[in-house]
Amino acid sequence: MKITRLSLWHVPLTAHETYYMADGKTCDTTTSVVLRLDTDAGLSGWGEVCPIPHYLPAYAEGVAPALTDLAPALLGADPIGPPVLMARLNHHLKGHDYAKSAIDTALWDLTAKAAKLPLYALLGGRAVADMPLYHSITCVAPEEMARMAIAAQEAGMTQFQVKLGADNDWLADVARLEAVRRAVGPGPLVYGDWNCGADRLTATRVGRAVAHLDVMLEQPCATIDECAAVRAATGLPMKLDENAHDLPTLLEGHRQGCLDAVALKLSKFGGLSAMRVARDLCLTLGAQMCVEDTWGSDITTAALLHLAASTPARGLMNTCDLNHYVAPRLAP
Ligand code: 0XW
Ligand code: MG
To answer: Which of 292, 304, 324 best tests ligand 1's pocket when mutated (most atoms within 8 Å of CB)?
Structure first.
């Protein structure tokens, strides 16, 4: 089988709830880039990548030029066995992992379609019947966030990500964690995510004020060193997100003792090929995984759910129904 054509679409996705994060990061309408790879066998594979502005070294307008550069290495290539072709693409163009994740997703789609198997069968097999979802709560007033948590809990959610730091008010962040923790009752997992937006002192003050509660902290500061220092000072478990994007950063987080949990995002790692390896490393390291992507609709969500479905329950903390945060749906 040979790849004969690449087609790209730019699709505006609007969040149902404007999403406020620390450091002025806001997610309202974003551009999702959808890729279709056609082949001479009549099969097509689909990929999608949707960067959030100012969130990671990734932007939607960067996808088309990167794919244009990669097109000569893709056209005429055999899509079966994506890691081999991805290694060739990585040699042709260094970095640009977010753009490559759309290609890698489309290659896995083609490989699974050619094999006439569900993708999870190629990623390790169906390891779990059901996958826990978390619900991410935009950083607004504490009582409003508690109401959102209860609504999500009534819809079946058992894990809650509380966005922190949007108003630079550390006491409000303490109130956010207290309010959501109280609202959902004992049992559900609750964690506060600063998206790198806190300094070490502020994150430590917030963490110490809620240290008597069953909560986890996520990526308070910009570096692994600072996140590890916050973990040591607060005694609260730590989830890394922005800082964990390849095998060396996972190992560094583990070495510094702050990899209780980690967000594995397709476009951070460069697609399913790289994330499958990261998933297997996290199983060995004993890090609880959130298998997801930055943002996106149905194609991204389908890809990440297949990887989550092939991840043993002992390592799968949760996964994400990204397509339910945005409209329009691309392929319900
Ligand atoms: C990437 N986000 C902003 C959206 C996802 O739902 C989770 C969140 C994060 O930073 O973890
Ligand atoms: Mg995060």
So the answer is: 292
